[in-house]
From TrEMBL:
Similarity-based family: Belongs to the AHA1 family.
Domain Activator of Hsp90 ATPase homologue 1/2-like C-terminal span(s) in chain numbering: 13-152
Lineage summary: Bacteria, Bacillati, Actinomycetota, Actinomycetes, Kitasatosporales
Source organism of this protein record: Streptomyces xanthii
SUPFAM superfamilies xrefs: Bet v1-like
InterPro entries on file: ASHA1/2-like_C (IPR013538), START-like_dom_sf (IPR023393)
Highest taxon of the lineage: Bacteria
Protein's UniProt name: SRPBCC family protein
Pfam families: AHSA1 (PF08327)
Length: 155
């Protein structure tokens, strides 16, 4: 069964500023890792058909096993649709020997201007069954909170 996880947040920043933060390497490293993790981008090609590889390291690896190793999640992300300033679509594949994390998850970032800024909705489809839905949605919400802090702090 195909699973879809979805999280939204209104960010007090213009749509273009949010879009730019989705496509800048240093921005992604700053805001994408959810609470309890840090991230490092190893490869960067921000265009349709390009992508990036991110290593997410658990600050406390005893809290739960990583997907790629005890303390890390490694994900290869391909950029699909890039519609400035409205949408970014990504295909994410986790590096893992565990078949519960196999497959390609599609992440769609929809950015809609609203009176107070931009409503960002992240929709994840084909989520691997090894990823707990509540934990995944909490992680996306944490990343969105980080994104809000990142773009709202910039002029």
């Amino acid at each position: 069964m195909v699973r879809t996880d979805r999280v939204s947040r209104i960010i007090a920043a213009p749509q273009a500023a949010v879009y730019d933060a989705l496509l800048r390497r240093e921005a992604l490293e700053a805001w994408l890792p959810p609470d309890g993790m840090r991230g490092r981008v190893e490869r960067w090609d921000p265009r349709p058909g390009g992508g990036f590889r991110m290593v997410l390291t658990y600050l406390d690896p005893t809290g739960g096993p990583g997907k790629s190793s005890a303390g890390e999640d490694v994900v290869d992300v391909g950029f699909g649709e890039l519609v400035r300033p409205r949408r970014v679509t990504q295909q994410a594949v986790f590096e893992s020997d565990d078949p519960a994390y196999a497959g390609t998850m599609t992440m769609t970032w929809d950015l809609v201007p609203v009176r107070t800024g931009t409503e960002v909705t992240v929709t994840a489809t084909d989520v691997p069954p090894g990823i707990d839905q509540a934990v995944h949605e909490a992680g996306i919400a944490s990343s969105l909170a980080n994104l809000a802090s990142y773009v709202e702090a910039r002029p």
